[in-house]
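Dear support,

We are seeing what looks like truncated structure output for some complexes. This example has two components. We would appreciate it if you could run it in full and send us the complete C-alpha cell output so we can diff it against ours.
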Amino acid sequence: MTACAARLPIAALLGALALGGCAGTPPPRLALEAAQVGIEQAQTVGARDYAPMELARARQRLGEADAAFAQREYKDADRLASHALLEAQLAQYRSRAATQREEVRRRSEENARLRRELLGQGGAP
Amino acid sequence: MNRLLTGTLLALCLCAPALAQKVDPEMERLRSQLRALDEEPTFGALAPAERLLAQQAIEALAAASRRERADALLVAERRLDIARAAAEAEAWQEQIAQLERERDQILLEASRRDAEAARLEAEKLRLQSLARMEEAERAQEAAASAIALSELSSAEAEQAKRLAEAQSQEAALARREADLAFAAAESLRLQLQTMTATSEARGQVMTLSGEAFASGQSKLKPEARANLQRVVEFVNRFPDKNVLIEGHTDSQGSANLNQVLSQKRAEAVREALIQDGVSAARLSAVGLGKDQPVADNGSAEGRARNRRVEIVVLDAR
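Here is the complete output from our reference environment:
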C-alpha cells in the first residue's frame, strides 16, 4: 500500500510530462508506457474487484491511444494515453479506498471481539 | 490548506478579471465540488497534492481553447474524482491507524487486568497460607497447652497416687499391727486355754506368762483376764488346799522396781481369781522380783520366760 502510494506521484509526474509535451511531433512512447504501468498498478491493488468500471475505461483509453499511435496521430495518442493514466490512477485510489474501508471494518470487528473476550465489554465498535 | 486554496483562488480571480467576466457553469460546478471536498470534515486536509492537481486542472479548463475544452473538462473531472478518492483512502488509513492504537490499548488493558488478577490471586494465596500457618500455630499452641495441662494433672495424679500409696501403706501397717496384736492376743488366749500344771516338790504349779500383762504394767490384759478359766478350774480342782500366787520378773531394771511390779502382778491375779469365785482365804500373793529365774536372762526368750506369775497349789496342810 505504502509502496503503491509512493509510486503514484511518480506516475502522475510522468503523465504530467506527457501532457506537457503537446508539440505533437515526438511519438509519446513514455506516455503510453506510463498509462500501461498505471493500469498494472491498479490491478495489483485490486482494481478488478473494487474499481472495475474505472479499470475498463483506462484500458479503453489506452486502446484508443495505441490505435492513434499506430495511425501516427501522436498528439491524439499522447492525449488519450494521459486520459488512460488518469483513469488508471482513479482506479488505484478507489481500490485503495475500498480495501482500506474493508480493513477498517475488519479491524473494528476485531477490536470489538477483543474487548468482548479480553475485557468482558459489550462489543460496541 | 483550505486557506491556501481559497487564497490561490482569490488571487486567480483578482489577477484574471477577464476570465472571470463570463460565467462558466461547468467551471462553477467543478469549483463547488472542490470546495465541498475541502469543507468535508472527515477529510480535513488529506491528499493535498491530489487537491492541488485538481485545482490546477480546473484552472486549465478555464484557460482552455474551445477545441481543447472537452478534453480539459474530462481531465478536471478525473482530477476531482482522484482527489476525493485519495482523501477517502487517507481518511480510512487514519482510521486504520486509530483502530490499531485502540487494539494496542485493549491488549495493554487486558494484560494489565491479567497482571492485576494474578496479583490478587497471589495475594489471596498469600493470605490463605498465612491463615493456615496461624491455624497450625494455634493448633500447636493448643496441643502444647493440652500437654502442659495433662502433665499438670498427671503431676497432681502422681501426688494423689503417692498420697494414696502412703495412706494404703499406713493402712497396711495398721492392719499388720492389728493383725499382729490380734495374733498376739490369740496366741495368749491359746496359751492360757492350753495351760497345764506341772508337779513340783512344793505342789502343783501352773505358770501364767508375763505376756498376760502389758509391758511394765501390773494390770492383766483384757484378753488374759477373760481367759483365766483354766487357772480357776485348776485351783478349784483342789478346793481344800491353799494357793500361793508368785510374781517374777526378768533381771532388767532395778530390783526394787521388779519386786514391786511382781508383787502387784501377783495381787492382780489373786483379785481376778477372787472375782471368778475362788475363796479369798485360800489365796495369798507374793512378789519375788528377779530372784528366781527359770531361764537365762541373757536372751530375749529367756527373759520372756522369766517374766511370769506362778500359781502353786500347796501340798502342805
